[in-house]
Amino acid sequence: MHPNDLLQPVYPDESRSNLTIISSILESYGAGLAQPTCPEVDRMLKERPRRNLIFLLLDGMGSAILDSHLPAGGFLHSHKCADLTAVYPSTTVCVTSSFFSGIPPISHAWLAWQLYFAEWDQCIEMYSYRDAYFHEPVDLSQRNFLATMEYESIFARIERIAPNAPEISCIYTDITRRRLTEQAGERLIFASDFESLLMSTAKKCAEPGDHLIFAYWKSPDAILHPEGPRSETVTAFMESSDELLHQYTPTFADANLIVTADHGMLEMNNHFSLDQYPDLDGLLRNYPAGDGRAKMLYVQNGKEDLFAARFQREFGNEFMLLSADEVLNKGLLGSGPIHPRTRGFLGDFLAIGISRSDLVYQPEGARPPKLFLGHHAGLTAAEMMVPLILYG
């Protein structure tokens, strides 16, 4: 991707999103959910059926990251067959929830890293089960926010419906968040580094029988956030991973491999703290939720027009401010049944990053927010475009 194209607006395309990969996998096991599938994956699974199927998710490895850190002749580039859009918001909680449920964000409601629960007047970090601003653990016996948020995982669906269900394994980075480890359950295998993840994958493929392997690695996202998309450390990780994939994929016995990302990454130039803008902060009815580039804002009744005008004056060049109804009507969260929580989580407005800035917030007494050099969840090509890589 050319640097001049990084800020081009990209909207999610349901027919060409990374969720279509999961839809193809479900269809191949006879457990489809009537969602659009990915033709390239459909073709591979039909024309080259294998005993083992591996889905490898490299967190944050958007198309722009792949293009800027690896030469054209490497393993990943050589087997790349398409670019897809991420589902939106383009952030790990939202996208992986679509991956693990098989449904679009509008239907599962896991929309962001932080979501606001009105019944407790609390913003909760959805994958770590902590208060979003004060970081205390959420006691699920007192505030079981999961009670209205559960869905049938694709693992359980395949095991329940597939005529000849494969053995399912989840091979994850060892810092995987609580939500993902709980969903994996007894299927979980931890990997201490990327090579260990590939070794565990090869070992599982060598076992008798059919296997579906979901592999998740934390990087390059874990490097991109603090160091940014131009980091030499990112280049080193990408080069090492590319070489390891070249080395290990021939050892994946009788396997098809799908590699993709949940989202991309964009370098930040500005961090705007909404609590430092009293003309805006004074119109909010509770703390903001969401992600830094997809901020959910809750405005006092009757003050919506005033807030929108002031926000446009301050941040109109950096963010697109959409009402919750506009977000839904534009189909940004996909189509399908709307989860009972979705509308409430969106609040009154969603502030979507369109340039190189994010929004943070620090309530009185809270520790300072993290200021990332690399961020995502906006609607730019750098954040929204992800590669589809197939090997088999």
Number of helices: 16
CATH topology of the largest domain: Alkaline Phosphatase, subunit A
Helix residue percentage: 25-40%
Q: What form results from the Cα inertia axes?
A: globular
The major beta sheet can be summarized as: 7 strands, mixed
The low-confidence parts are none
Tell me which CATH architecture of the largest domain applies here: 3-Layer(aba) Sandwich
Strand content: 15-25%
Give me the Rg, rounded: 20 Å
Give the count of structural domains. 2
**Termini separation (Å)?**
26 Å
- Rounded mean pLDDT score: 96
Q: Characterize the quaternary organization of these chains.
A: single chain
Number of strands: 18
Q: According to CATH, what is the class of the largest domain?
A: Alpha Beta
Q: Going across the major beta sheet, what is the strand order?
A: 2-18-9-1-8-6-7
- By CATH's scheme, which homologous superfamily of the largest domain applies? Alkaline Phosphatase, subunit A
Structural category is alpha/beta
Question: Care to describe what's here?
Answer:
This protein is an alpha/beta fold. The protein has two domains: 3-106 and 149-266 and 381-391, Alkaline Phosphatase, subunit A, CATH 3.40.720; 269-369, Gyrase A, domain 2 (2-Layer Sandwich), CATH 3.30.1360.180. The chain is built from 16 helices and 18 strands. The protein has helices at 19-28, 39-47, 63-69, 75-78, 92-101, 105-108, 154-161, 178-184, 194-206, 221-227, 232-248, 278-281, 304-315, 324-329, 342-346, 381-384; strands at 52-58, 80-85, 114-117, 122-125, 130-131, 167-173, 188-191, 211-217, 255-260, 266-267, 270-273, 289-291, 294-297, 319-323, 349-353, 357-360, 374-375, 385-391.
